[in-house]
Amino acid sequence: MRQLVVLAVLVALAAASPRERRSELLQEYEKCRGGAGVCVPYYLCQNDTVVTDGAGIIDIRLGPVQECPNFIHTCCKNPVITATPKPPQIYEPVCGIRNTQGIDVRITGFKSNETQVGEFPWMAAVLKKEVVSGEEINLYVCGGSLIHPSIVMTAAHCVYKHAGSPSPYRVRLGEWDTQNEYEPYKHQERNVVQVITHPKFNPSNLHNDYALLKLEYPVELSLNVNPICLDNSPSIKDPKHDCVVTGWGKDRFGKAGVFQNVLKKIDLPFYYFDACQNALRTTRLGPFFKLDPSFLCAGGQEGKDSCSGDGGSPLVCLDSSKSQYVQIGMVAWGIGCGTGGIPGVYADVLYGYDWILNEAPKLLSDVDRPVTDYWKYA
C-alpha cells in the first residue's frame, strides 16, 4: 500500500508543468532577507540571476586543460615585475692572462695541441685583403700579438713589402675557429693603416725581424681580446719557465702541410743561445753558421714545432710568480719542422724591446695613458 502511495506522488509530480516543478525546487532554498530572490550557491548565480542553463557550471568534454590541482583555483598570470638591470661591468685589462678553461664553454674531445675558446686572447691573425672574381676576401698571412688596443706586433718578414705604403692588411682578434662563428664572443677586425719595420731588418737572413701594425681604431678589450705582457728582464728567458707558441699555420712543411681551422698550441722548451747555434751547425747551415743575437731558440722535440704560416706568432712564457704570460719571441724560421734535436728560431722580443718601446708611442696620435700600461705586469 505504501509503495502505491509513493508511486502516485511521483506520477503526480511528473504530470505537473515545468513551471510548477521549478517553483517547488526553488522552495528548497531560503528566501533572501530583503525578499527579492533566493539564497543559492555562488556558482548558481550569475549577473544576479539564478543560472538555469548550466552555463559556467557543466563540465564541457572538449575544452581547456585544468591547470590547477584544486578545482576552486584558477590560473592567473604572474604579476609583472620589472627587474633593475645590472650595470655592465667595466673590463679592466691585465696583460698576459691565459684562459686555460676557455670562456663560457669548455670544448672536450680535442687533441692536446688544440686550444680552448679564448684561451690566448692576445693572439692575432694578420690577413691580406685581395679581390677575387670581384669579391674582396681575406687571405691568411701570419700570426701576431696584441700589445696595445691599437697596435699588433708581428714579424717583419710577413709585412715588410708594404711598410710605408697604403696597407692591404687587416687584423682579426678574438678568433678561434676560422671557419665557423659559434664562439660565445665574436671576433673583432680592424684595418691596418700603418706598417713599420725595424730599420735593420734584413729580408735575406731575417735579422731584426720586428714589425708593428697600427690599427684603424682601437679594439675593445674583453675576455677574448687582451694584450700580452712585454718585459726586458733577462730572467724571463729561463728554461724552467713553461713556454708555448700558438698559430693557425701548417702542421708540416711541403704540399702535405695543412693550415689549421682551430687555433693550435705547442708547449716548447727554451734553448740556450750557444746550444741552439751548435744544433743549427749540424744542419745544412754548416759548421761556420753564426746565430744573430736578434734570435732565440725553442723546441727541438720530435714532431713539435711551429711551421709554415706561423710566422709572427707569439712565443710566450709563464711567469709563475705573477700567473701572467710574457712574450719572449715571434716565429721566424727553422730548418725543417719538428725535427728532433733541431730547435726553431724566433725573433727575440727582448732584444728588440727598446725599438718597440720607442716606436709604439709614435703610432698613437692621442695617447691617454702610457703604452706600457697595457703590456706591463700587474
Cα distance spanning the termini: 110 Å
Figure out the total of helices: 6
> Runs with pLDDT <50, length 5+?
2-16, 57-67, 69-74, 78-86, 251-258
At the fourth level of CATH, the homologous superfamily of the largest domain is: Trypsin-like serine proteases
CATH fold-type name of the largest domain: Thrombin, subunit H
Percentage of residues in helical conformation: 10-25%
Largest beta-sheet characterization: 7 strands, antiparallel
Strand order of the largest sheet: 10-9-13-14-15-12-11
The helix/strand class is alpha+beta
User: H/E element string?
Assistant: HHEEEEEHEEEEEEHEEEEHH
- Tell me the Rg in angstroms: 39 Å
DSSP summary, beta strand count = 15
Main location: secreted
Signal peptide: 1-16
Family: Belongs to the peptidase S1 family. CLIP subfamily.
Subcellular location: Secreted
